[in-house]
Design brief:
This protein has 24 helices and 32 strands. The chain is of the alpha/beta class. The N and C termini lie far apart (about 60 Å).
Length: about 775
C-alpha cells in the first residue's frame, strides 16, 4: 500500500514520542510505515523527543499508531506516545508525500542518549564481502549499530554534534545518509574508506599505515608475545595472547594488577565454548547488542595461561563488538600469518586509574603499559569501560554497568527537580535525573587517585552539558569519601543530601523495579558502609515504608572490632582473629589465621582488640565472609576487593549438592544475627577433619537461613524483601536467600538493571534526593 490518498474524511494527528528514539533509526522507520500506509506529513527530532504529524484516513492512522509501537526498531525504547488531533489546513491538504525534516533544538528538553551498540550482522557481512565498498573498513557502521554515547557532544543527536563532525562525507556516503530508504539514513558515524577515520600501527619509531598493513603488524606483534594497546569504542585496551604466560605476566606487572582476572575476547560462540560452559541464556547475553563481558564457568582444560585468571573457576568472556575486533581475529587476505581466535583484553590503565582514551593519554600514559599500539583518529568524547555481568537463572546480574547499557535511563516514576548524585568511593558511577528519568554514568572507578577524580569531574561535566543543571546534590554519609568532599565544594547554595550507604542500596533496588514507595524489608550486605552511629555497617536489615526516603534499622549482623581499619580489609586473617576473639575461641596454632600472622602481628592485633585502640565496631557481612575464608584456609591476604569471598564461594560451589555438617547463625528477637556459635561449631568441625569445602557450602546455607529467620522476625505485615549490596554478587548466597525467603511467603527483588554493588549506589542516592525534595515541597 504505497499510494498517497487525500480523502475528504482525512484527519491529521500530531505525535510526540519520547524515550530512546534518537540514534536508533526511528525517523526512517516512521517514514517507512507512513509511506507504506499512504499517509502524508513529516517527522523530525528535537532535543527531547521525536515529533511527527500524519494525515490520512482515520483507519490508516489507527494502524500507523499500532505499528509505531509494535514494529519499532529493536534498539528503540519508547517511554510514551502523546497524540493530539489537529486541524487540516489548505497547505497540509496539498501534501503529497511524507517527509523527514531538520532537527530542532528545544530549550529545556532532552531525549535519552543511546548507548554504544555492537556492530550489527549486516555491517559484518559487508566487512567481509570483497564486492562491498566497505570491505575490511574498520569503521563500518549503520543506523542500527556503532558508537553513540562515546561520540555525542550535544543533542539533538546529529553529525555536527558528534566527534565525526571532523570527517566530511564523500558523495556516496552523503547519498546514503540522505536516502530514507537506506540502512544508513542519518547514521551519524557513517564513513567509508574514502572519507572515514584511518587506522595505523606504531611500535617505537616505526609506523605502519593502511588498515590491512596495520592489522597485519598488530597480529604479528601479538604472535611474538607483545602487549599491544588497541584504541576501541570507549577507550584504549591492552591485548596479548591468551596462551602466552610470559606476556600475561608482563601485562599484570605493567598494570600493577595483582591477581584480579583478565577478560578474554573470543572470535565467536564456538571459540567461547572452548573456554567455558555456556548455556542458552548466557549465549544470548554474550551475543546481545550490548556485548558485555560475561562471567562464565571455566573449563578445567581451557587453553588459557594460568596468569589470565589465577585460581578462579570463572572466566570473563566477550564477543567482538567493533569492526576492529572482528578484523583482528580474522586473517588478513593474502598473508600467511598466525591469526588469534582469542585475546586477553583489558582496559589500558594502571590499576585504580581511569581508562585511557585521549590523544594525550596515548602519548603520556600508554607507552609504559605496552610494546606497540593500534590507533585511529576518531575521537572519543566520553570514555566508557566494558560492562560485566553474570547470568543467574536465565537473567542478568550486572556487576559493572557501562558500555552498551549506560546511559540508558531508569524511570523513577516520579517527577522531581534535576539532581546530581555523586555515588560512592569504590566502583564509582554518578547519576543525573531529568524529570522522572535517572541517568547513571558509565563506570568511573575507585576514587583513590587524582586521575580518577579528574575523570569523574570530566564525566559529570560532559553529561551535564546535555542534561539539566542539577538543582540539588546527594552524596554518601561517609565523611571521608572524596565524592562527598567534591559535592560539598560544588553544592554552593544548592541543597546537599547526605544519604546513608545501605539505605541508598535498598532504594536503588526499588528504583530499578519501579517500586519506589512500596513497604520493603531491605537486606543490604556489603563490605563497608558508614553507619548512622558512626560505626562501620555492612550486614543490615532495613525497613522502609511508603516514604522510601526514610528507613529504620530493624536488624543487623552483630558488630565485631575491625582491627587496624583498612588493614583488616586487606588481611582477612585479622577479621578471623577478631571474630574468634569475640566468640571466645583461643588463638591456637592449629588455626589458619593464627599461622598466617607473625608473632608481632598477633601481639599487635590482640593488643588492639583488648584495648580498643585502632578498632571500629563493624557489622559487615562482607568482613564475616573474609573471616570464614581465612578460617577455612582459603585466603589470608587479598590482591583485589572481594577476593577472599569470591574464592570462598568457589570452594563452596565445588561441593555441589553434597551436604556438610549443619551450622547455624543465631538470630535474636531484635533481628541481630550472632555468628559466635557457628564459628565455634566450625572450629570444632575443622579439628574433627571435616573438609573446608563442606564447611564453606554449609556456611552459605546457614547465612541464607539466618537472613530468612531475621526477616520473619522483623517484617510484620511487609511481604516484599529486597536483596542488595555487593555481597549479593555471590550467586550461591543470592539463590539460597531467595529460595528460603520465597518458601517463607515473601516476594523477593534482586538486581537485573543496575549492580548490587556500589556501581548502583548513585541511583538510590538520586531517588532519595528527589523524594526528599518532593516531601519538602509538600510541607511548604
Amino acid at each position: 500500500m504505497t499510494d498517497t490518498l487525500v480523502h475528504i474524511d482525512s484527519v491529521r494527528q500530531r505525535f510526540t514520542v519520547t524515550g530512546v528514539v534518537q540514534g536508533v533509526g526511528f525517523r526512517p522507520f516512521v517514514h517507512r510505515i507512513a509511506t507504506d500506509l499512504g499517509l502524508t506529513g513529516f517527522v523530525g527530532n528535537d532535543s527531547g523527543a521525536v515529533f511527527l504529524e500524519v494525515q490520512g484516513p482515520g483507519a490508516r492512522i489507527d494502524e500507523f499508531r499500532r505499528r509505531l509501537r509494535t514494529d519499532a526498531p529493536p534498539l528503540a525504547a519508547i517511554s510514551a506516545v502523546h497524540v493530539v488531533t489537529i486541524a487540516i489546513d489548505a497547505e497540509t491538504l496539498s501534501d503529497s508525500a511524507f517527509r523527514i525534516v531538520e532537527s530542532q533544538p528545544v530549550a529545556g528538553a532532552t531525549t535519552p542518549i543511546p548507548p554504544d551498540i555492537a556492530v550489527c550482522d549486516d555491517c559484518i557481512a559487508e566487512l567481509f564481502d570483497p564486492s562491498d565498498r566497505r570491505y575490511r573498513h574498520p569503521f563500518v557502521t549503520c543506523t542500527n549499530c556503532g558508537p553513540r554515547f562515546t561520540i555525542i557532544r550535544a543533542l539533538p543527536y546529529d553529525r555536527p554534534a558528534t566527534t565525526m563532525s571532523a570527517f566530511a562525507m564523500c558523495a556516496r556516503c552523503a547519498t546514503e545518509y540522505h536516502d530514507p530508504a537506506d540502512r544508513r539514513f542519518h547514521a551519524q558515524p557513517i564513513a567509508c574508506p574514502d572519507c572515514g577515520p584511518t587506522l595505523w600501527f606504531a611500535a617505537h619509531t616505526d609506523r605502519v599505515t593502511g588498515s590491512d598493513a596495520a592489522l597485519r603488524a598488530t597480529q604479528q606483534a601479538l604472535a611474538a608475545g607483545a602487549v599491544v594497546a588497541i584504541k576501541g569504542v570507549g577507550g584504549y585496551h591492552l591485548a596479548c595472547r591468551v596462551d602466552d604466560e610470559a606476556a600475561v605476566v608482563a601485562l599484570r606487572a605493567r598494570k600493577a594488577r595483582g591477581a584480579k582476572p583478565f577478560a578474554v575476547l573470543v572470535r565467536d560462540l564456538d571459540i567461547a565454548r572452548r573456554y567455558a560452559h555456556i548455556d542458552d541464556a548466557e549465549a544470548a547475553v554474550l551475543s546481545s547488542p550490548a556485548r558485555p563481558i560475561v562471567l562464565l564457568r571455566r573449563h578445567r582444560n581451557s587453553p588459557l595461561a594460568e596468569a589470565v585468571a589465577p585460581g578462579s573457576p570463572l572466566v570473563g568472556l566477550m564477543l567482538p563488538y567493533s569492526p576492529i575486533h572482528h578484523l583482528l581475529l580474522a586473517p588478513v587476505p593474502g598473508v600467511a600469518a598466525p591469526v588469534p581466535d582469542a585475546l586477553v583484553l583489558t582496559s589500558a590503565n594502571r590499576s585504580d586509574e581511569p581508562i585511557c582514551f585521549t590523544e594525550d593519554d596515548a602519548v603520556q600514559r600508554i607507552p609504559p603499559l605496552c610494546d606497540a599500539m593500534l590507533d585511529h583518529d576518531r575521537p572519543i568524547h566520553v570514555p566508557c569501560d566494558d560492562s560485566v555481568v553474570r547470568v543467574v537463572d536465565g537473567r542478568e546480574l550486572p556487576i559493572r554497568r557501562s558500555r552498551g547499557y549506560a546511559p540508558l535511563p531508569i524511570d523513577l516514576g516520579l517527577d522531581g527537580p534535576p539532581v546530581l548524585a555523586v555515588g560512592g568511593e569504590l566502583k564509582n558511577t554518578f547519576c543525573l535525573t531529568d524529570g522522572a528519568r535517572a541517568y547513571l554514568s558509565g563506570h568511573i572507578g575507585d576514587m583513590e587517585t587524582l586521575e580518577t577524580l579528574r575523570a569523574f569531574e570530566r564525566a559529570v561535566g560532559q553529561l551535564s552539558e546535555i542534561r539539566h543543571e542539577p538543582m540539588r546534590l546527594a552524596a554518601d554519609l561517609h565523611p571521608g569519601y572524596h565524592t562527598r568532599s567534591w559535592a560539598e565544594r560544588r553544592a554552593g547554595v544548592r541543597p546537599l543530601d547526605l544519604i546513608q550507604h545501605h539505605h541508598a542500596h535498598v532504594v536503588s533496588l526499588l528504583a530499578e523495579h519501579g517500586r519506589l514507595g512500596e513497604p520493603v524489608i531491605g537486606v543490604s550486605f556489603d563490605g563497608t558502609g558508614y553507619g548512622c552511629d558512626q560505626t562501620i555497617w555492612g550486614g543490615e536489615i532495613l525497613k522502609l515504608g511508603p516514604d522510601s526516603h526514610r528507613f529504620v534499622r530493624v536488624g543487623h549482623l552483630l558488630p565485631v572490632p575491625l582491627p587496624g581499619g583498612d588493614a583488616a580489609v586487606r588481611n582477612p586473617w585479622r577479621m578471623a582473629l577478631s571474630q574468634l576473639w569475640m566468640a571466645g575461641i583461643d588463638w591456637t596454632s592449629d588455626l589458619h589465621p593464627v599461622t598466617a600472622a607473625t608473632p608481632a602481628e598477633l601481639r599487635l592485633t590482640r593488643s588492639q582488640l583488648e584495648s580498643g585502640t585502632g578498632c571500629v565496631p563493624c557489622s559487615s557481612m562482607g568482613r564475616l565472609f573474609d573471616a570464614v575464608a581465612s578460617l577455612l584456609g582459603v585466603r589470608q591476604r587479598i590482591d583485589y576487593e572481594g577476593q577472599a569471598a569470591i574464592e570462598l564461594e568457589a570452594l563452596a560451589d565445588s561441593m555441589g549438592d553434597t551436604a556438610g555438617p549443619k551450622l547455624r547463625l543465631a538470630v535474636r528477637l531484635d533481628g541481630v544475627i550472632d555468628p559466635a556459635g557457628m564459628l565455634r561449631a566450625m572450629v570444632s568441625a575443622l579439628r574433627a577433619g571435616v573438609q573446608p569445602a563442606a564447611l564453606a557450602a554449609e556456611f552459605h546455607r546457614a547465612v541464607a537461613v539466618a537472613v530468612t529467620e531475621a526477616v520473619r522476625k522483623v517484617a510484620g505485615p511487609v511481604r516484599l524483601v529486597g536483596l542488595t549490596g555487593g555481597v549479593f554478587q555471590n550467586v550461591l548466597l543470592l539463590r539460597g536467600c531467595r529460595q528460603y525467603l520465597q518458601q517463607a511467603g515473601f516476594e523477593v527483588l534482586t538486581h537485573h538493571t543496575v549492580p548490587p554493588n556500589d556501581g548502583g549506589l548513585a541511583l538510590g542516592q538520586a531517588a532519595i534526593c528527589v523524594l526528599t525534595a518532593l516531601a519538602e515541597a509538600e510541607l511548604r
